[in-house]
Every structure is written in structure tokens, then in C-alpha cells.
Amino acid sequence: MRTDSAPPTLPAREHLPAGDAGTPVLDVVIPVYNEEKDLQPCVRRLHEHLSRTFPYAFRITVADNASTDTTPLVAARLEAEIPEVSNFRLEQKGRGRALRTVWSASEAPILAYMDVDLSTDLNALLPLVAPLISGHSDLAIGSRLARSSRVVRGPKREFISRAYNLILRGSLQARFSDAQCGFKAIRRDVAQALLPLVEDTGWFFDTEMLVLAERAGLRIHEVPVDWVDDPDSTVHIVKTATDDLKGVWRVGKALATGSLPLDRLARPFGDDPRDRDIQDVPKGLARQLVGFCVIGGLSTLFYLLLYSGFRTFSGAQVANALALLVSAVANTAANRRLTFGVRGRGGAVRHQAQGLVVFGIGLVLTSGSLAALNAATGNPAHSTELAVLIAANLAATVLRFLLFRAWVFSDDGDEGERRPSTVVAGHQPGAPAARSYDTDQVRAGAAADGTWRDATMHLQPVRPHDTDPRDTR
Length: 473
Known about the structure:
With about 475 residues, the chain is of the alpha/beta class. It contains 13 helices and eleven strands.
């Protein structure tokens, strides 16, 4: 997992301002490998569509990743004939590598890509990028699995696509509906921070980018698309599926160990009045209460199951102590990560030690309740013991939340990585990026000169004939 370069933090999303008509607002990348037949009709059709419907300046970039046929010649001819088309070549294969290289060096504030077969209806392109231009969303994806999508493809690929997305939901808790559709867009400032964390250079690049973005709390906009399968697709399904499953395992392991600095991708709230500070109300209290209650309910069920198991071979006090100890360790770990948002291994031992102190208080409450019950009835029924323990655990749960919030996971002295509630980012405008690229110099997440440039561009609605007098449209 890429963690060698420190990604910048993200400012609040803003609508891209109007102004300079000469800067491309949108850079649509078409990654290709041996596409000499389809490249020219694809680029010309896309250029005609953007010229007719897109109200801002745009660029189409052909990213040739190590083609061995005449694809480079076709791309060079298109670049010479169409002013809005650029072309570069990588000497290594990999769709993810091509996208990372072009997106890292592009100066356009909105970056997109689509497959060369144009399986997706181009009428979805403006709805795809509009939420990014407006500042509403960070990434946007086309979805073939939305209710209103219209898709034509064979049962084999339909099954593979839906099975893959079910795997993502079950293993990585992904909530986006379609990871593999070759129709996506991202804001440049988000790409600057996100791409250094994405390791894959092939077909899993999309999935890894989306999973990390979603886990970081970035907003992903989904657009229902009309999509027709390309029967001549050169994708090797078995190899791609194997590589994807390896990627799922690698990303899942990284997320489970907390080795990714996803807190650096957190967005501060926008200018919604509901997001403004309210005096004397602790931040995040409502969300923490919900998370704590859910975890507490599951922990109580886990505790009761353990108690019933231990009770078969030990006394009530021993069974209660063992069950409470095991469930307390699991409860502290779950609340640390999910309720209070503490990531990484820093402070984990201290948090568990403090959690054991809280466990001791809960043990006193529950053990005292059992002792009082035995003193009152002599030989109580098992159901009565469980009812008393539930009541005692409710009291212990309230006290546990207060101690967790005020002591164990308080903001002061926390050694773990906590997601910040506000983020401030530097703002350094720079010169436009070069049109030629050296893949040895362009690293993942960096421009050709080794620096990141400001993603806010001055925009103005334009038509091609406003800037090119030779255009007769």
C-alpha cells in the first residue's frame, strides 16, 4: 500500500469559479492498448459530443500504455488534427498506471476517464461531472446496477459483475453499486490526496480508489447509465477476477490494520447553516451515542452467550467475570475504532488498560447485583440471574459511555490517529503542467515537476467557436 508520500489535506468543497476561458475544465482520459481499430471513431465521436453539449473548455487525452500495433500512430494523427486532443505513451502496460500518470500531471480541475469502446451512453457525461464542478461531490461513477439504468449484456458478464460487487459489499463494506464501470470522474484536488494511497496499476485501480475514498468519508456521486456490452472486449475475465480478489484481500488487510492515513482525506463541512458550531453541544455526541448503543447491544448479547457457556462448568461469579472480561476487550476495541474514530495502533494498549478499569467497575456492579440476588432468594433461577444481569449491565453501559468519552477516548492526550473535525489546506497556485510526460519522473500522486498545483481554476462557459475562429460549427 502506498504510504511513502504524505498526501495533502483537503479544503471544503467549493463550486469552481467562472473566469479564465482558456483553461480546460475537463480532461477526459481514454486509456488504450492495441486499439487501432476503435480509437479514431471513439475520439471523434466523443469530441463531437463535448463540442456540442459541454459548456466549458475541455481536453481529450489518449493514454497509450505500451501498444504494439499502430495505435500510437492513430493517436498522433488525432492530436495533430484536433486541437482539443492530446496524446502520450507509457512504455508499461496497466490501465491504472496510465490513469494515475495522466491525472497526476493534468492541470484540469475535473478529471475523468472512459473506455475506448464507448459502451456507456455519452449523455451521462455531463451529469457525471456536474456534481464535481458544483462542489457537491468528490468523485462520480457511472452505475450499470442502478434501478433506472438500461444495460444490454450477456448473462456471464452480468453474473460476474453482480458477484464481484457482492464480494465488495461483504468483505470491504462498500456501499457504491458498481466498481467496474469504465466511466468515472474525480476532482483534481481529491486525486492529489488520494492517488498516492492507491497501489494497483491494473484493473483493480478503480475499486481500490473508490474503497479508500468511501472509507475516508469522501462523497461519491452515482449516475445511472445506459450501457451496451462490447462483444469484442479484450479483457481477460479470469485473470482480471483473480487479480481483483488479490486486491480485495490486500486492501482489506490494510484497512483492518489501520495502516492507511485516511484521516488526511477528511473534508470539513461546507457552508450549510446546520453544520455551524452550536455552543455548549459536544461535537459528534449524537453519532457517538448511536454507535455506542449498537456496539453495546451486540456486546451484551455476546456477554450473555459467553455467560451461559461458562455457567455450564463454573459458578455464577466466575462465569460472570470471564464473560465480562472477554466482552469488555472486544467492546473497547470496537468503540475505539467505530464510535470514537481512533485509528492506528498508537495508544491501543493504553486504551485497553483503561478499558479494563472500566471493566472492573462493571464487574463490581454486576457481581454486586448477583450477590444481592443470591442473598435475597438463596437459589435463583437462571432466567432470574439473566434479568438481573441485564439491568446491571444497562447501568454499567451508561457509566461506560461516560468514562469512554471523558477519559479513555478524550481528545486530550490521544496517541491514536483521530479523524479531524476540521481541515485546513494550503493554497498555492502554480503554472500549468507540461503537455509532455516522462513516466520516470511522474510518480503516483505528483505532477511532472514533483509538486502539486492548486486545483481551483477560473472557469467560464465557452463554445469551441469562441476560441477557435477556424471552427465553422
